[in-house]
Amino acid sequence: MNWDAVGAMGEIAGALAVIATIFYLARQVKEQTKAQRAATHWQMIQSRKNDLRLVLENPSIDQTLRKAADSEDLTEDEFATVFIHTEMLVRGFEGELHQHSLGFLDDDEIAARKVTLKRNGFIKLDWLLKHASHILTPLVKKEIEDMIKDKDQVQQREQEAS
Predict the structure, then answer these.
(1) For 2-44, what is each residue's pLDDT tens digit?
(2) What pLDDT was estimated at residue 31?
(3) pLDDT (tens digit, 9 = 90+) per residue, 83-95?
(4) What dihedral do alpha carbons 121, 125, 126, 128 form, nearest 10°?
(5) In angstroms, rounded to a whole number, what is the distance separating the alpha carbons of residues 81 and 62?
C-alpha cells in the first residue's frame, strides 16, 4: 500500500466523521427544540394556574371580576383590580404570542388562548383597545383587533340564524 492510498483512506474517514457529526448535531438540535417546546408549554400552564390561583385565593378579586362581567358599574378600586388583572392576562398572552412566533407554541395552543380571552366576561376587548391601547404591543393590538372582528362576525351569524 502506498502513501497516496493511505491519504485517500484518511480523507474518506474524515468525510465520514464529518457526516456523522452533522447527523449527531441535527439530532441534538431536534431534541433541544423538543425540550424547549415542552418547557414553554409547561411555563404557560403554570402561568395560567397561577392566574386561577390568584382569583381563587382572593374572594374579593373573584367578586370584582364577576361584577365586571355583569355590569359596567365599578368603583375606582374595583376598576383598578379589573384593569390590573386584565393587563396581567394580556401580558401573558403577549408572551405566548412571542413564544408562538419563535415556534415554541403550536397554532392550536394560541387559538385556544384566544377563545379563552374572547369568552372571558370581564375582559372587554373593545374597551381595552379604546382606553388602554398604550399598554399593548403592536402584535397584541392586532391580535385583539382580529379577535373583536371574529367575535362580531360570530354574533352577526347568530343574529341572522335566529
Answers:
(1) 888 888 888 999 999 999 999 999 999 999 988 888 888 888 8
(2) 92
(3) 888 888 888 899 9
(4) 110
(5) 10
Domain count along the chain = 1
Side chain identity at residue 92, one-letter code: G
Which position has the higher pLDDT, 154 or 145? 145
Q: Give Cβ neighbours of residue 135 (< 8 Å, ≥ 6 apart).
A: 87, 90
H-helix or E-strand spanning residue 52: helix 3-57
Q: Which domain holds residue 28?
A: 3-161
Residues 72 and 159: their CA atoms lie apart, in Å, by 24
Q: What is the pLDDT of residue 77?
A: 92
Taken as a whole, the chain contains a residue count of: 162
- Grid coordinates given for 88: 396581567
